[in-house]
Amino acid sequence: MARPPTSRDLARLAGVSQATVSRVLTNNPKVNPETRARVLQVLKDANYTPNALARAMKTGRTDTIGVFMTRVTSPFHAELLDEIGRVLSSTGLHMILWNIEHDPEETVAEVLHQRLVDGFVLTSATYDSKLHTMALASGTPTVLLHRGIDELECDQVVGDNWQGAYDAGKYLVDHGHTDIGLVTLVHTGNTSRDRDLGFRAALADAGVKIKPSNVVSVGVPHADGHAAAEKLLSRKKPPTAIYTVTDLLAFGILDGARAVGARVPDDVWVIGFDNTEMAAWESFDLTSVDQPTHAIVETGVNLLRQRIADPDRPTETVTLPCPLAIRGSTANRH
Amino acid sequence: MARPPTSRDLARLAGVSQATVSRVLTNNPKVNPETRARVLQVLKDANYTPNALARAMKTGRTDTIGVFMTRVTSPFHAELLDEIGRVLSSTGLHMILWNIEHDPEETVAEVLHQRLVDGFVLTSATYDSKLHTMALASGTPTVLLHRGIDELECDQVVGDNWQGAYDAGKYLVDHGHTDIGLVTLVHTGNTSRDRDLGFRAALADAGVKIKPSNVVSVGVPHADGHAAAEKLLSRKKPPTAIYTVTDLLAFGILDGARAVGARVPDDVWVIGFDNTEMAAWESFDLTSVDQPTHAIVETGVNLLRQRIADPDRPTETVTLPCPLAIRGSTANRH
């Protein structure tokens, strides 16, 4: 099969100008009915699919959603991306993915003004990023998934990170732990902040103090969880439990525990956050706070479609529960 | 900031028709010089970024590459996707991602004719898929990365899967293994085929027979590697080494070994294929054949850019070496 016919080829076949073909394609009333009929017959014979660009110019719709994301190699983000693709596709929408780790904000600024997409999904909103401000200012329908921004006038669907973290803290205290490690991220987004503050609140409510030396602030990678565990567990009197704010860090903590010969859960309990598929693998068998990824994405895409259909509807923030999934990295299953 | 100005707003500001604004934006010579100057001044005052769609209509370029991929939640595919995003971005190109697990071929057929992109990257070519045939027939510049199709007239960049698998087999034989398990995928692509055949060739060359009962054919998920290991290692006389064709299956095999109480490497050696970042984690410490992901992507994107610039240049197939990365899942490090 050759390259599909262009409007130039079709014009030649119909014996009209390219401009006339364009007018037919855009339903311009200036074309006389006989000419229109002839052009349409040629289009039909050629099995012509109108160029998406031409169609988008005409309808103002691209049926494409732009997704901004970071760190697709993190297991949770890969699952989130997969789920976004699945849900968009099931509603007949395509996805343009921008990895904002690689595409800096200047590029994003250009993208926002190009209107290649009908709407935006932002999964990595941070307080100090201009991305959500720029997205909203561009007038493009936008939804924040997974990460939200407090009080922002924008549709948002997030997990109840604070309550999930609180429940994890309460679970440790209820099972007698008083010397507890907290491996936390610098708070650039609401997820890491609430996963930290909720956990601290549970301990405070139970009258359990966290020693300052038990709090380790780290970066995102597995290696950082590993180093934090080595630091906490090499002490003369190490903590009896460690909670952290992502599964990826928890996997690093489990590996760090292995590296210093600490047994999980005999010597130390470990709890992560995300409940990725990998958390259930024997290698980790990780107790983790569950992010309801499917529900977050489905609810969010639904809100975005409503916003595209009606740009003036009031914004909504939906918060979904994050229950604790208990596994072998904490010894007590009740 | 409000929604950016449309061509309608600009036409009103310049006191001309929308059609005239369009003619100025597309450098149509029919606009008289004074009108053109007035419109350009209005555009400048409004700080107007021409709509990407309009620009694409004019230049025929979208600066966007369409990527077709499956299984972004598999660790290797996530790394591959991340690398493709990084390399495209570093050359000023955007990425549209289609997950062909979710977007069936009918959708792909439509996409191919829409010309939303300047080129395609296919990472999951299989013999029985029509995708590469459709991509080439559409006349859109296309490169196959990671998975290739023998003898196809298309730019392709692949790892030397056969030789990498051969080296893994030779390494096991050289270290005295004669009772060896092979956990293999149904061959729908050149990767799983060559990773199977190369391994068998090494054993055959060394005069080592693979017992039919030591060959287990599985699907892609971790759970399938897990089940295969349980099957092989629950025998009265289990194999002393297991080789498999992806890291994800190898992680499943390590977890299956744990589940039946087999120690790695004391009771059984395990080798995977991909050398993902996770292979280096203590949980796995997996000996694995390295896929040169960065070099595959960089070489492939470079070929694609050359093809976009010169559609008639001869096609190239580049095959890159896949050396064995030796770790603790095989006891002998020399």
TrEMBL record, chains A, B:
InterPro entries: HTH_LacI, LacI/GalR-like_sensor, Lambda_DNA-bd_dom_sf, Peripla_BP_I. It comes from Kribbella rubisoli. CDD domains: HTH_LacI, PBP1_LacI-like. This is LacI family transcriptional regulator. GO terms for molecular function: DNA-binding transcription factor activity; transcription cis-regulatory region binding. Keywords: DNA-binding, Transcription, Transcription regulation. Residues 5-59 form the HTH lacI-type domain.
